[in-house]
């Protein structure tokens, strides 16, 4: 599907995945490599992904997602993690920013990032989760482009997943995204109402 409007209109949180349809690795790589064009603060890309593919790993994740069946049914579930410390001056990703901004510009940006994010725990979490959330959305639309269905999941034990999958203490679990193919033997519930411009926008 190449039309962006259609991609938006057709993406759904698909509750039932066809257990017999695998997601080939090449398609998964294509999805991720397209999705990483998502924007991030200072282009720091403070995210990591664990692709839960094996039956053994799915069984460990399942109870940590309140036994939602899609964890076992989807061929792959991604754990999206955002790095609360991803703005610190020693992070390698600053090199991607420096390639354009130069040494002096990058030093200034590093200081600015410290002011923006280093002051409170809440700001660190905001940094990790806003960037990680954008990656998550980008993955779901990239998946749709490659004809793959998705489901975002936050009905989870965030800390439990962080521990069970041995994520660094700064790597906050942002969300899970199940990927695969809709099981057409089920009916997808109708699209729920969205609030439109006049309902959510106030002009000033
Ligand atoms: C951050 C986030 C967390 C969600 N968590 C769950 C979940 O744990 N279980 C579930 O069944 N649906 C979950 N959903 C799916 C939403 O219910 C769904 O996206 C919404 O009803 C709109 O439906 P649509 O995506 O098909 O348009 C989640 C969606 C988002 C964005």
TrEMBL record:
Keywords: Flavoprotein, FMN, Oxidoreductase
Signal sequence residues: none
Presence of keyword Nuclease: no
Entry annotated with the keyword Nucleotidyltransferase: no
Matches recorded under Pfam families: Nitroreductase (PF00881)
Domain Nitroreductase, first and last residues per copy: 9-181
GO molecular function: oxidoreductase activity
SUPFAM superfamilies: FMN-dependent nitroreductase-like
Cofactor dependence: FMN
Family: Belongs to the nitroreductase family.
Protein name: Nitroreductase
Classification lineage: Bacteria, Bacillati, Bacillota, Clostridia, Eubacteriales
